[in-house]
């Protein structure tokens, strides 16, 4: 493994960055009369990692999509810094959504360089007038220097995931773990105030998992809130400030990882963290 792939210890951050406080208040979401999430209340404060655990089909991804404003609650309210985005105009809601970065379970990259994949996250969030100015500046700089330029925020995000020196690689040449790291860097480049992560390390090897966990922790250090769903109980115990257990769309309990994993208050949580299956035997195939 090349040394240049390693995580850099001191990426530079903007000390003036702000962070968003997220609050879900009695949020319910249903489709065709079936509730997927029911009366969930959960907060994510700036500088905090909240991890959602639960079996497949518990509603974790739906809850994340509600938090990231991809879906509108059937009932209840999602508040961003005390504001209900769904009570605002479409343009105002879009501005709030641009302050949130989301990383999905599987990386989806464009057929271009690593840097351009990361840079696009910032460019599409800028007003058209700013995009045009940036384009003219890039073309002018390339004409003068004879080589492409890379935005400082793009390099900063790539440094955070240990890929700064790979900025000019073709994305198609990346391993699965490297592609997910680029996807994470793309979410970081616009400097979102809240990160929403849907199993970002699933199916990754231990090294790539460690790199992304380090990047998540760095995001917390600079004051961002992080809402993360995972099936990895050790990861939830390792990186979380608070852990939320979701079962059949219901938020069973929330607490610090040491309590959730060592002294849960609800028997359903205790069974889950012990590794017991939560199912009705009558539901199993014959």
Tell me about this structure.
The chain is an alpha/beta fold and about 290 residues long. The strands form 2 sheets. A 6-stranded mixed sheet has the order 5-6-7-3-8-9, with helices on both faces. The model is unreliable at about 1-15 (pLDDT under 50). It has a domain at about 20-100 and about 225-280: Rossmann fold. Helix content is about 35%, strand content about 20%. InterPro entries: AAA+_ATPase, ABC_transporter-like_ATP-bd, ABC_transporter-like_CS, P-loop_NTPase, PstB-like.
CATH architecture title of the domain at 20-99 and 225-278? 3-Layer(aba) Sandwich
| Structural class assignment | alpha/beta
By CATH, the superfamily of the domain at 20-99 and 225-278 comes out as P-loop containing nucleotide triphosphate hydrolases
Which fold name corresponds to the CATH topology of the domain at 20-99 and 225-278? Rossmann fold
Q: What is the molecular shape? A: globular
What is the average per-residue confidence, as pLDDT, rounded to a whole number?
A: 85
**Gyration radius from CA atoms, angstroms:** 20 Å
Portion of residues in beta strands equals 15-25%
Distance between the termini: 48 Å
What is the strand arrangement across the widest sheet? 5-6-7-3-8-9
Produce the secondary structure layout.
Elements: E1 22-31, E2 34-44, E3 49-53, H1 60-67, E4 75-80, H2 90-97, E5 100-103, H3 114-123, H4 128-145, H5 152-160, H6 176-188, E6 194-198, H7 206-221, E7 225-229, H8 233-239, E8 242-247, E9 250-255, H9 257-262, H10 267-274
Parallel strand pairs: 3-7, 3-8, 5-6, 6-7
Antiparallel strand pairs: 1-2, 1-4, 8-9
GO biological process, one term: phosphate ion transmembrane transport
Pfam families: ABC_tran
Protein name: ABC transporter-related protein
């Amino acid at each position: 493994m090349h040394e240049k792939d390693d995580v850099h210890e001191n990426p530079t951050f903007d000390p003036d960055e702000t962070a968003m406080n997220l609050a879900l208040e009695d949020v319910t979401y249903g489709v065709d009369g079936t509730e997927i999430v029911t009366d969930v209340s959960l907060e994510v404060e700036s500088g905090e990692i909240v991890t959602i655990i639960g079996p497949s089909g518990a509603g974790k991804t739906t809850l994340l999509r509600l938090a990231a404003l991809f879906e509108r609650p059937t009932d209840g309210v999602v508040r961003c810094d005390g504001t209900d985005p769904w009570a605002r105009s479409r343009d105002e809601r879009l501005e709030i959504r641009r302050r949130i970065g989301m990383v999905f379970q599987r990386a989806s990259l464009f057929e271009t360089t690593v840097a351009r994949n990361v840079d696009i996250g910032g460019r599409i969030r800028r007003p058209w007038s700013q995009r045009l100015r940036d384009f003219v500046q890039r073309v002018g700089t390339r004409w003068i220097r004879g080589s492409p330029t890379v935005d400082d925020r793009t390099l900063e995000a790539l440094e955070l995931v240990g890929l700064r020196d790979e900025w000019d690689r073709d994305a198609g040449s990346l391993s699965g773990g490297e592609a997910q790291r680029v996807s994470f860097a793309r979410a970081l480049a616009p400097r979102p105030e809240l990160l929403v992560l849907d199993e970002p390390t699933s199916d990754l090897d231990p090294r790539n998992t460690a790199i992304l966990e380090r990047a998540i922790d760095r995001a917390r250090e600079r004051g961002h809130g992080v809402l993360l769903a995972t099936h990895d109980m050790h990861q939830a115990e390792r990186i979380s400030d608070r852990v939320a257990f979701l079962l059949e769309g219901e938020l069973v309990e929330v607490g610090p990882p040491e309590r959730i994993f060592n002294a849960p208050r609800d028997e359903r949580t205790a069974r889950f963290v012990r590794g017991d299956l939560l199912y009705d035997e009558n539901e199993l195939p014959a």
